[in-house]
Backbone:
């Protein structure tokens, strides 16, 4: 798992849900789950019911101009209840879990001061964990160090040794290396940066930190209607994105100067359509690859989420059951002195 700078601590709000909250931490309901599980629509329904506001927890939906491929809620949906941390930065900005935690915690404090609960909604597990528990503080990234590691990786590719950096990480910090796929260059480099900056293993820093920076009372719900339904929805969603103009969206991003080398432009959907824009693939082939990669992504999300002990797994189609769980949490949660 990557590590990033810790977000700032959260102040206690004055009122939540019309009750004095000076001795308690603000309530946050996490709605997560695999992609296409139905998180956004249910979050809006529940936020209306409980007079709440929604904070985005999807790492792609923070980017401007990337609407179709990131499956952002529509403007009409966002008008129903207040939505936050959508369209925060441009695709060429360096936005990470540490920065997200800082931004999202600040917004949550503001929502709690208005006397409303927070629905933290999205499928980016690292962002959710950063918000709820904090992340290991390792200092700011050093561009020069990163550039050297990236240049070394390029030389390794030329020498037909693309896993050289990951192999080095396995020697220096085997526990962290086991968590990172050999093809995940960004996380491999970040782990090597941590070792170079701190002189210690990322796994050791994680163990000492314990991810115990918990400024909120939280109910964590994983929404999952089942693998078969999610697979069907993924295929339908990818087709709907193509029909809605994802290719035109990618072309528009390219015209704005956002090239395929940018990290957001390498996300599912965008990397597939960049190939079409550049003449390297057909739209029909890109759709099939996009569907297959999204299905694999959903499987990885489930794998991540199964490690979170606090999660309550519910079927989003059982709206009443989810609503009862939220109501019970809001009415029965203990006040923290």
Residues:
């Amino acid at each position: 798992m990557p590590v990033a700078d810790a977000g700032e601590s959260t102040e206690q709000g004055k009122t939540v849900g019309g009750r004095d909250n000076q001795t308690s931490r603000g309530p946050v309901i996490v709605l997560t789950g695999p992609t296409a599980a139905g998180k956004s629509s249910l979050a809006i329904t529940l936020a209306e019911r409980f007079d709440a506001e929604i904070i985005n927890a999807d790492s792609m939906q923070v980017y401007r101009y990337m609407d179709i491929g990131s499956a952002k809620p529509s403007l009409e949906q966002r008008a129903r209840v207040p939505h936050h941390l959508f369209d925060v930065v441009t695709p060429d900005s360096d936005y990470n879990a540490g920065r997200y935690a800082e931004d999202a915690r600040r917004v949550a404090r503001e929502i709690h001061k208005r006397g409303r609960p927070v629905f933290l909604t999205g499928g980016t597990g690292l962002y959710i964990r950063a918000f709820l528990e904090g992340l290991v503080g390792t200092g700011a990234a050093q561009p020069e160090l990163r550039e050297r590691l990236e240049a070394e990786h390029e030389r390794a590719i030329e020498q037909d040794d693309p896993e050289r950096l990951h192999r080095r990480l396995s020697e220096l910090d085997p526990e962290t290396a086991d968590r990172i796929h050999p093809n995940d260059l960004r996380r491999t480099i970040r782990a090597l940066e941590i070792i170079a900056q701190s002189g210690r293993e990322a796994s050791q820093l994680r163990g000492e930190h314990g991810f115990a920076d918990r400024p909120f009372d939280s109910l964590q719900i994983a929404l999952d209607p089942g693998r078969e339904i999610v697979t069907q929805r993924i295929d339908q969603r990818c087709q709907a994105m193509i029909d809605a103009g994802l290719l035109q969206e990618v072309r528009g991003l390219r015209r704005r100067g956002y090239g395929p080398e940018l990290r957001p432009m390498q996300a599912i959907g965008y990397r597939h359509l960049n190939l079409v824009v550049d003449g390297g693939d057909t739209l029909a082939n890109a759709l099939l690859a996009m569907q297959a990669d999204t299905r694999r992504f959903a499987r990885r999300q489930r794998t991540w989420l199964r490690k979170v002990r606090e999660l309550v797994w519910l079927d989003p189609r059982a709206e009443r059951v989810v609503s009862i769980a939220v109501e019970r949490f809001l009415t029965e949660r203990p006040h923290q002195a």
User: Anything to note?
Assistant: The two ends are 32 Å apart (CA to CA).
